[in-house]
Design goal:
By secondary structure, the protein is of the alpha+beta class. It has two domains: 39 residues; 97 residues, Rieske Iron-sulfur Protein, CATH 2.102.10. It is built from two helices and ten strands, in the order ααββββββββββ. Strands 1-10-9-4-3-2 form a six-stranded antiparallel beta sheet, with no helix packed on it. It has a four-stranded antiparallel beta sheet with strand order 5-6-7-8, with no helix packed on it. The protein is elongated.
Length: 157
């Protein structure tokens, strides 16, 4: 016949279970903290490599003229303050904008922007992104679409 085991002897490992749970939760905490530190380091100190796109010389762009580079997906314009580059993606649904007389027009939902990227007619409500421009070692202008700047930024020569 089978002998019954007393209840006290059946559950004999409560200390080992607690030690295991403490070690397991401690390990999870250390992993979480390490992940958070890596994320913070990348957020504050890491900049992904730039995919700089060359746009030529400053003199190539005439004052008051806007150029749409469909391949690179941005507008280039030179005004009285200098040269600037804006995204050609509508801020409503990211459709490619088109240059229409003195406005930028979104064919998807009829949003309109002025030549400085400010929304004129909805449904878009946000201004277009401006990109950083610099001159590389070969003395050619480069646009960095991975680095947005304020709308007041101009490249001046």
């Amino acid at each position: 016949m089978r002998e019954s085991i007393p209840t006290q002897q059946r559950y004999h490992f409560p200390e080992k279970r607690r030690e295991f749970l403490r070690a397991f939760l401690g390990g999870l905490t250390v992993l979480w903290a390490g992940g958070m530190l890596c994320a913070l380091k990348n957020f504050f100190f890491f900049r992904p490599p730039s995919a700089g796109l060359t746009i030529g010389a400053f003199s190539k762009y005439k004052p008051g003229q806007m150029v749409h580079d469909e391949k690179m997906r941005f507008f280039i314009m030179r005004d009285s303050r200098g040269l600037f580059v804006m995204s050609d993606a509508c801020t409503h649904r990211s459709c490619m904008l088109r240059l229409d007389a003195d406005q930028l027009f979104c064919p998807c939902h009829n949003a309109r922007f002025d030549l400085y990227g400010n929304p004129v007619k909805g449904p878009a409500e946000k201004q277009l992104d401006y990109y950083y421009i610099y001159k590389n070692r070969e003395k050619v202008l480069v646009v960095d679409p991975g680095r947005t700047v304020y709308c007041s930024f101009r490249y001046i020569e």
